[in-house]
Amino acid sequence: MGDGRRAADPGWRMWTAIKLFFLRLFGRLGKTPASEVPASERRLANRLLSYWEGKRRGRTFPALADIREGEIAELWPWCFVLDVKESQSFPYFQYLGRELGRYSGVFLSGERDWTLTLLDKATAGFAEVLKRRAPVLIESEIVRYDKKKLLFRTVLLPLSDDQANIDYVLGAANGKLVDQ
Predict the structure, then answer these.
(1) Are 8 and 67 contained in the same domain?
(2) What span, in angstroms and rounded, lies between the C-alpha atoms of 143 and 177?
(3) Hey, which of 5, 45, 60, 85 would disulfide with 155, CB 3.0 to 4.6 Å?
(4) What is the Cα–Cα distance from 94 to 155, expressed in whole angstroms?
């Protein structure tokens, strides 16, 4: 099977995703530059996680200064940076990508708190990142106000300037609408 047909095969893509998961789990992907992640890996969360792993360079966490917008230009519009020190009762955004910002005013149906937006859901793992001191991946299905279902994926990645305290959280989120 040629590379083009292989990349289009859902089974092959799933196998590639599984291999990437185990490589990350056992720490070998951290030595692989994001540019070497297979082209078939299109998931935003996985691509940002691979970039973050490459920026660690043997450390527990990369620093905010290690993150270069130009290196992840195709991902950056879907990214956000949360400032841990400024976050009190809710996450404080140091940066919010323009594409992700579109979700900040979309309300969900079936929620008791109508102030919740998709952006709130994207940052729902903020406290878990701080507690676990490790990346958090969230996948969920959300029903929007117009009754359309959004399949949603977000990744939250800790950043530290001193390797002792998590100062920022780098994240990315996107999704796709499906008919119910």
Answers:
(1) no
(2) 9
(3) 45
(4) 17
Classify residue 108: in a domain, yes or no.
Answer: yes
Considering the domain boundaries, does residue 56 fall inside one? no
Secondary element (H or E) of residue 7: helix 3-8
Output phi, psi for 51, to 5 deg.
-60, -45
Question: Helices (DSSP H) in 32-175: which residue ranges?
Answer: 44-56, 98-101, 118-122, 126-132
Q: How far apart are the first and last CA of the chain?
A: 35
Which of helix, strand or coil describes residue 180? Answer: coil
- What's the confidence (pLDDT) of residue 40? 43
- Give the residue carrying structure tokens 């990645």: 157
Amino acid (one-letter) located at 167? D
Alpha-carbon distance of 59 to 43, in angstroms, equals 25
Run means of pLDDT, 10 residues per run, the chain, 180 residues: 46 48 42 40 84 95 96 94 87 88 63 63 87 92 78 92 96 83
Query: Which residue in the block uniquely carries the two structure tokens 């956000």?
Result: 80
Alpha-helical runs (H) found in 123-179: 126-132
CA 85 centroid distance within chain: 21
Domain residues for 167?
A: 61-178
The answer to whether residue 55 sits within a structural domain is: no
Q: Give the residue among 169, 75, 85 at the shortest CA–CA distance from 122.
A: 169
Structurally, the chain folds into a number of domains equal to 2
Residue owning tokens 């966490």: 61
